[in-house]
Structures are given as structure tokens and as C-alpha cells.
């Protein structure tokens, strides 16, 4: 007798097979197509899934529009700079894997793993108080952003600058989304595991999940498959296959805050694993309780609902996930225009990758598209109970 496929073995299927109303799901896809055809965003690739079935990917528009002679259409396999999706898809799971391996704990201080940061004039004030849990939940008190990419800067200089960065508030009192905290986490993965973040994440997650088009620092041969991002006003460079985030560039392209590149189908594989509570098609990658803790509200009573690496909806209608996902839903976005959400209650996930920063970050149409798309796609789920 043929074995029944596991819901953790993602495979292609129709909307009806996956438990979506086909007409309603087409309306959700149509919203994305409308934003592209009207010129509000250059291009997008979208995919949804449920019951171990992937619907899509669907590609719309252009992967690159400037310069004109390099214009390229978007394809189902276009590789995107995921930007801050790096945080929950590389950095956070790597830290949690090291917890499972007994190498570190979430109550470890920054100072334990990064004594060079703790030696800074500001770091000595906070590095013994800020824990990995604070960094993962964006409650460290570190500011959201700081220019760390001055000419000639490399990883050592970036970390030294972080040691000279004061907190904007005491640890644990509020959520302030901080790329700086995740740069620290990426370096902690390297120090604790003995291998860089890219190699650790590839070995423990991407290779076992069959995510063959997911990596940091894409090779030159991938350039023709990558969605373009911003044309920098100061240099005129259009970033293609090179990380958009300049702090991540200063870290050599492998950084805890940004730098991961992937396709819609590969992101879908990762989201399916998260919904399967750590199981992939080839076995367990994270323990059930680890995944549940990542998706659980960690910041009750504070100003934003955060899990470990993930945003959790918790009934908050302001987020990119819209209003119709359950309070248990979790997701994340990336500055370049990427996003992924999943809902454990319905078992559905939604991947929306755009290149909205191409050729300029001034385009904010994605902020309207994201909740509209997620509401329309969530409304297409049938037999949700």
C-alpha cells in the first residue's frame, strides 16, 4: 500500500486539495497582480500552502527594471534578498538549536560570548545585563539602527562600534525592534558553534529541508536569477545578488540581521517546518517545545507582541498579517519587501516576496498590500476548525 504523504513533506497541489476556496484564493493572488500591473511595485512572487501542499509559486512583473537594458521578468524561481526574514529563518533557529545542543542558554549574557563588545565604553555598562532572550525578543534596549558601515569597516570594527553604542532604555521594559541586537546574535552563533552563521544554518536547516536556493552571499552565477533591490543614491549601484543592508555588507554578507537570499518555494519549505513543529521531510530539525516557544508570545504587557525571532499576532490588527489570522499566527517581514506568515490554527502559511525597494526605498505600497493580501488569503481557508 502506498504511504500517505506527511503534511511535513511539502509538495505541489491545487487550492482545493490544500483546503482553500479556489475563487477566494484567486482574488488574493489578484490583489498582488493588480499592485504589479498598476506599477505600484515592480514585481512579486507569491505562494501559499496547507495540509503539506504548496499552491504556487505565482510570479508577477519584473525582477529588474533599471537600468533599462538589464530589465528582466520575475519568475517562479527568482531569488530574493530576504532582508530581515534572515532573523527568524537563520539567526533565531540557530540560537535555539544551540540551546538544544546544550551549548548556550537564553539567559546567557552578551558579555559571556562577546567579551570584546563588553570591553567597549558603553558595552561594559550593558553587556552583562542584556541576555540572548532580550536580543531575540527585541527587548535589549539597543536602538533600532546605527550606521556601522563606514568605509573600511569589517566585522571586528562593527562589533567594536556596537560596544560603543549606548542603550536607549533599560533591558526588558519595552520592545524596540533592533537590527543591532541580531548582528550580535549572528556573531554569537559563530563563537558558540565554531562555524559561521551561514554554514551552521545550511547544515542544520536548509540542506535537510531541500532548500537548494537559499544561502548567504549568492555566487556571481546567481545574479541573473536575483531580484534587484535599491539603486543607491550615493553610488548609483543597483544591488543585484548582493545584500542590500549595508551593515550586513560590513559583516561580510553573513550577518544575523540580514543577508539571507531565497526563493518563495524555499521560504515555504521553512514555514511548513515551523507549522510541523520542527519536523521536515527527512526528520526532526527542532524539538516541538522549541518551536512552540519561538511562536509563543514572549512580551505580554509590552508595546509589541514578540516571540523568539518571530512577530506573533496575538490579536494585534496593526501588523502586516492583517486582521483575519488567528492570535496564534506568527510571521516576519523584510525591508526589501518580503514577508512570510503562518497560522497554526488553520495550518496555512503565506509567502509574499516583492522587490518594492527597486529602484528606490521611497516606494511604500507594500505596506498596504501585505495586510490586504493576508486577509484575502486567510478568508480563502475552508474547514478551518
Q: What are its keywords?
A:
Beta-lactam/transpept-like; globular; Beta-lactamase; alpha+beta; 2 domains; 8-stranded mixed β-sheet; hydrolase activity
Polypeptide structure, described:
This protein is of the alpha+beta class and 385 residues long. It folds into two domains: 11-85 and 214-379, Beta-lactamase; 89-198, Beta-lactamase, CATH 3.40.710.10. Helix content is 32%, strand content 16%. The chain is built from 14 helices and 15 strands. It has helices spanning 15-18, 22-37, 86-100, 110-113, 115-118, 123-126, 132-136, 155-163, 179-193, 197-206, 246-250, 264-275, 288-295, 366-379; strands at residues 11-12, 43-50, 53-64, 72-73, 80-81, 215-216, 228-231, 238-240, 260-262, 279-280, 283-284, 311-312, 330-334, 338-343, 348-354. The strands form four sheets. Strands 1, 2, 3, 4, 12, 13, 14 and 15 form an eight-stranded mixed β-sheet that branches. Strands 5-9-6 form a three-stranded antiparallel β-sheet. A hairpin with a 7-residue loop joins strand 3 (53-64) and strand 4. Helix 2 (22-37) packs antiparallel against helix 14, helix 3 runs parallel beside helix 9 (179-193) and helix 3 packs across helix 10. The longest helix is centred in the first third of the chain and has 16 residues, at 22-37. The protein is globular, with a radius of gyration of 20 Å. The two termini are 30 Å apart. The model has no long low-confidence stretch (mean pLDDT 96). It holds the Pfam family Beta-lactamase. One of its GO terms (molecular function) is hydrolase activity. Keywords: Hydrolase. Residues 31-366 form the Beta-lactamase-related domain. This is Serine hydrolase domain-containing protein.
